[in-house]
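Support request from a user on the community tier.

User writes: "When I paste my structure tokens into the form, the page sometimes reloads and wipes my input. The last time it worked, I copied everything first. Here is what I submitted, just in case something in the input itself triggers the reload:"
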């Protein structure tokens, strides 16, 4: 499937500037009681960019802020000032922040004032002298109503974002993305998910994360729409805002969709304004997709990407064929291949699983300060994703698991995603996670952890019998645990690293 490439802006700063010129009085962003028109949004961005000044140009500025209008203004302002944006999780501990900030070596740190006691000692240790605390008397909305010129626009080839990966596999890696890469990726995504003028977009995931950045901060200026940002995820607030703000596009995730469907007022909510939902961050169970669309009347387009890829690589199209269980075809100017997991050099036939490798103009420039990891990930112009997937005859990609999560049971390869899909299809199951656990006899065995609905009387024996009916013997979990909740990362993904640690600790105990 091919789609024409829409207009590409030189940078996302150009994109915001043109949106302000075309729709100055339209509400650009709101969060809580704060609201900015495009005219004021650009004025605040220009004001803070000029305050940051030439001293940060070609350097890096860390943003350690919770969801707010200030965070959005700071994000664009750092880019407008010619610096590389380093968005970081404000919930990180000092232990987590210190190595990341030391690696990033920022010229300045912009942070929520409540974090001062965490940030200040780290900054002193690593030699960062410019700290800008936001909150109280210092807000980034002070330039509303003023006519302020932007600094010189950044060059497309300049570094725009230093996006640190979640760190669930060890040391966090800083992904270098250029202005050209992220701006092109906005247009690529628009080819398959074309927005309409003046969309109302809802984001509840953290604005430091690549998903919220791409599907919220960058999407709305492109369509001159209105972005509603929630400070944190509360199902009551999400359902209320969908109605009150007449949300047309909702950027969710499997965890969010499942949580909303379990809420008491879900069936009472008026979803008539919703035109489309996006899903990213992790695989969407087909049963979740079916139930959501059946209740809301609104379809979910599932896509695939990663921080190293700008971040979007594929998407089921807004108009055209959507294939449940697939993450869609490649974006324009993007190539996707499936190769063997051993050497990464042999291209595999259709419907045969292997490692997903990709190339395109949105791919990262490399990892910061990690030449060996960069060389391993970027080979001969391809980004090796570390994900296991397969392509069908129409070029639609199916993600089956992370390469490292493949479990070998008695010599047979098992992809936990397949087992999780079976478990999630059970009407009493809310979420499921399957991991491999070392076993002296089989090499590894499968351990499944599931969250059941609160009114369910499901037993482990019932569920094991259910899986035996649907899976070949070696794919049936050797152990199954019904648990009240599963560990999650800060962006709502099921955290299998934490789950493995819990299992290991339990075994030792």
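"...and here is what came back when it finally went through:"
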């Amino acid at each position: 499937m091919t789609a024409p490439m829409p207009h590409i802006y030189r940078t996302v700063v150009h994109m915001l500037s043109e949106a302000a010129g075309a729709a100055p009085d339209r509400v650009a962003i709101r969060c809580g009681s704060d609201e900015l028109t495009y005219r004021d949004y650009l004025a605040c961005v220009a004001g803070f960019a000029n305050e940051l000044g030439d001293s940060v140009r070609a350097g890096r500025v860390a943003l350690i802020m919770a969801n707010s209008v200030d965070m959005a203004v700071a994000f664009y302002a750092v880019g407008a000032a010619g610096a590389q944006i380093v968005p970081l999780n404000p919930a990180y501990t000092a232990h987590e922040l210190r190595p990341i900030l030391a690696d990033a070596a920022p010229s300045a740190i912009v942070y929520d004032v409540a974090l001062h006691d965490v940030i200040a000692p780290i900054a002193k240790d690593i030699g960062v002298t410019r700290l800008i605390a936001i909150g109280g008397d210092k807000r980034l909305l002070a330039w509303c109503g003023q006519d302020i010129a932007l600094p010189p626009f950044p060059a497309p080839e300049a570094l725009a974002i230093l996006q640190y990966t979640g760190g669930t596999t060890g040391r966090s890696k800083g992904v270098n993305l250029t202005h050209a890469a992220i701006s092109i990726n906005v247009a690529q995504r628009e080819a398959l998910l074309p927005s309409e003028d003046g969309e109302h977009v809802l984001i509840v995931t953290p604005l430091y994360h690549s998903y919220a950045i791409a599907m919220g901060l960058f999407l709305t200026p492109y369509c001159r729409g209105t972005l509603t940002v929630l400070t944190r995820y509360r199902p009551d607030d999400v359902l209320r805002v969908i109605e009150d703000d007449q949300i047309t596009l909702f950027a969710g995730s499997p965890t969010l969709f499942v949580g909303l469907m379990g809420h008491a007022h879900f069936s009472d909510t008026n979803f008539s304004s919703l035109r489309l939902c996006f899903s990213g961050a992790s695989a969407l169970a087909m049963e979740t997709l079916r139930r959501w669309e059946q209740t809301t009347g609104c379809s979910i387009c599932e896509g695939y990407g990663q921080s190293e890829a700008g971040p979007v690589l594929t998407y089921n199209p807004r108009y055209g064929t959507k294939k449940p269980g697939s993450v869609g075809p490649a974006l324009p100017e993007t190539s996707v291949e499936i190769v063997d997991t051993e050497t990464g050099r042999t291209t595999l036939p259709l419907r045969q699983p292997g490692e997903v490798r990709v190339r395109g103009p949105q791919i990262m420039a490399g990892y910061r300060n990690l030449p060996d990891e960069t060389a391993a990930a970027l080979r001969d112009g391809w980004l090796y994703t570390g994900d296991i997937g397969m392509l069908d005859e129409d070029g639609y990609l199916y993600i089956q698991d992370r390469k490292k999560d493949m479990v070998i049971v008695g010599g047979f390869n098992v992809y936990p995603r397949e087992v999780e899909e079976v478990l999630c299809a059970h009407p009493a199951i809310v979420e499921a996670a399957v991991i491999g656990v070392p076993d002296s006899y089989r090499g590894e065995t499968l351990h499944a952890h599931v969250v059941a609905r609160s009114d369910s009387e499901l037993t482990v024996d019932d569920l094991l019998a259910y899986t035996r009916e649907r899976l070949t013997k070696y794919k049936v979990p050797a152990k199954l645990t019904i648990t009240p909740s599963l560990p999650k990362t800060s962006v709502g993904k099921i955290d299998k690293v934490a789950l493995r640690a819990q299992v290991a600790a339990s075994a030792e105990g």
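Agent notes: The reload is a front-end session timeout and is unrelated to the input. The two ends are 53 Å apart (CA to CA). The mean pLDDT is 93. Escalated to web team.
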